[in-house]
Amino acid sequence: ETGVTQTPRHLVMGMTNKKSLKCEQHLGHNAMYWYKQSAKKPLELMFVYNFKEQTENNSVPSRFSPECPNSSHLFLHLHTLQPEDSALYLCASSQDRGNNEQFFGPGTRLTVL
Amino acid sequence: DQQVKQNSPSLSVQEGRISILNCDYTNSMFDYFLWYKKYPAEGPTFLISISSIKDKNEDGRFTVFLNKSAKHLSLHIVPSQPGDSAVYFCAASGTGANNLFFGTGTRLTVIP
User: Fold this and answer.
1) What percent of chain A is modeled with pLDDT above 90?
2) Dihedral (CA of A8, A9, A12, A15) sign
3) Would you state the pLDDT for residue A104?
């Protein structure tokens, strides 16, 4: 596989569930990002990891918990979400934190019931 | 408050004609601008970028123009092709390549 992959592509969960989103990049990049895209809103940066270290948490509620075990993998652990958290969650990577050109995965469409 | 704005949610253009997508920004510290293209069920893909030291950057059918004094940039596609039909996002970042700030996107439809 090439590029940035995300699983699952679609997820429906209840407010009491715990689930995880997975992102994997095959580009040899060192920086990885989680974005949220809600309807009619711009992409919102959630978290940034550079060389496996979290460098940015953009005031994201604690019900979203990221994990970056290595430079190729990024997870977003979800628990006790709210219906307003329903959105498209996009993962991206770039060569490093100083590189603006980010490569995006296809996203996970999350619906919270 | 949105720092990058795309005020036209949609645009329809006849095949072969020019498509012009517009983007405005408010932060004068932005110095690098990008356009991304997104097809349904896919993530955004990088299209073209421009640094604030330039006012024009061209790549094949795609040209980005930057007007720093007006805090405005535009993407020109000529000639437009049906395969260009997608959502186009404008993005901007400041010195040090910190966060990318995105607009809400413009849906381009190229009519055959």
Assistant:
1) 75
2) positive
3) 95
